[in-house]
Structure formats: structure tokens, C-alpha cells
Amino acid sequence: MTIDFKGNHFPKSVILYAVFFYVRYGVSYRDLEEIMAERGVEIDHATLNRWVVKFSPLIAASAQVRKKPTAVSWRMDETYIKVRGKWTYLYRAVDRDGQTLDFMLSERRDTAAARRFFKRAVGTNGAPDRIVIDKSGANLAGLQSLNVILKFMGAGRIIGVVQSKYLNNIVEQDHRFIKRITRPMLGFKAFHSAAATLAGIEAAHMIRKGQLGQIRLSPFKQFAALAG
């Protein structure tokens, strides 16, 4: 997939550098504006925000397509992200080796949101053999609902469900990187911009974990390659 950068007043390399720096290192837009100025690029923080919101989801989608195969045993959990001063819920799943599977920001933490996330993750990665979740009744109900759909569609098998706080430590530990990057960003003002930015953070995290298999390239070059 090739991302279209036409119509922008700055070169593709400058845009990608700014977006990568923001989603990988956790700075405010004011800080990023200053960093870019130090490199001879005068750009206001509002434009930097538009770049991140526009291009991060496209790069994350490319990362999902290009990532290496993942294991068939998953770990799923959600963490909290503040948007407009209120808590929202970032659903995340990794495999048994800690490789990122999928993620979804939701304004609610309920059965419908859990079902939507599981359907999305399975649609992207295929159905796993089992999913480890916590003791959340909403997550259990969402997964059971997905199993009903799989059975109705004649998928041949259903997904095994394991509820264990201890076994979910790997995804809870993985949340920490995401929270460490979002903390200096001083909060999100809108849900759509939060979801877009988090997609870029997740893509950068996948690169950090070596999921694109391009270990000979620097993290930035791997990120830029996702734009085509």
C-alpha cells in the first residue's frame, strides 16, 4: 500500500520524520515544533497534529498487513486513556510471545465493545486456538458471542477461553509502553484524534518489537517504508 502525500507543502520525508518522532518518543506538539525548528523546519504545532492524525492510521494499517505471523494463543486486556478529561478504553491483544495483534479505542467498556474488538482482531489475524482474558464478564460475553458467530458460520471450531489474571501479565506489561508514550502528550482533545494517534504509537511499538522483520533498517526507515 502506498500513502498519498500530494498536496502537502513539505516533503514526505519531513512529514514522516515528524509523525514518527511524535508517536515513538512521547513529546508534546509544542516540544515537537521546537525539535523540528532545531532541524531547520519551521512548522506550527497545529499542522503537526494534522499530520499525525491523518497519516498514523494509514501507517498502522500498513503495519498490520506487513507484520510477521503471530502465535495462535492470545492475551487480551484493556487499559485506560483519557480523552476530553474522561476515561476511555483501549482494547489490546498480543500473542503468547508479546507480539501485537490488534487494538481498538472505545468510549465504553461493555459486551458490545468487547465483541467488536474480538471480531476485528480475528478478522485481521484469523481465529486463534485460545484467548486468555481477565475476569471481566463483558469480555467473556463478547468472546462467547463471537464463538456463536463462528459456529453459525461453520468455521469448524470455536475459540478456547481462559480467564486468568496471572496469565494476562504479558499484555498488562505491554500496556506500559503505550502509557509511557501517551503521558507526555498532555491528553487528547477529541476521540478521533486519540484513536488515530494511538494507531501510530502501536505501529511504532510493533517496529520496536521487531514485528516487521526488517531488523537491518533503522526504526525510522522501517516506519517510512510502511508509507510505500
Topology readout:
Elements: H1 12-25, H2 29-38, H3 45-66, E1 73-83, E2 86-95, E3 100-106, H4 111-125, E4 130-133, H5 137-152, E5 160-163, H6 169-182, H7 191-208, H8 219-225
Parallel strand pairs: 1-4, 4-5
Antiparallel strand pairs: 1-2, 2-3
Helix pairs in contact: 1-3, 1-7, 2-3, 3-7, 4-5, 6-7
Structure description:
The chain has 228 residues and is of the alpha/beta class. A 5-stranded mixed beta sheet has the order 3-2-1-4-5, with helices on both faces. It folds into 2 domains: 93 residues, no CATH class; 102 residues, Nucleotidyltransferase, domain 5. It contains 8 helices and 5 strands. Helix 1 packs across helix 7 and helix 3 crosses helix 7. InterPro entries: DDE_dom (IPR032874), Integrase_cat-core (IPR001584), IS_Transposase (IPR052183), RNaseH-like_sf (IPR012337), RNaseH_sf (IPR036397), Transpos_IS6 (IPR047930). Keywords: DNA recombination, DNA-binding, Transposition. This is IS6 family transposase.
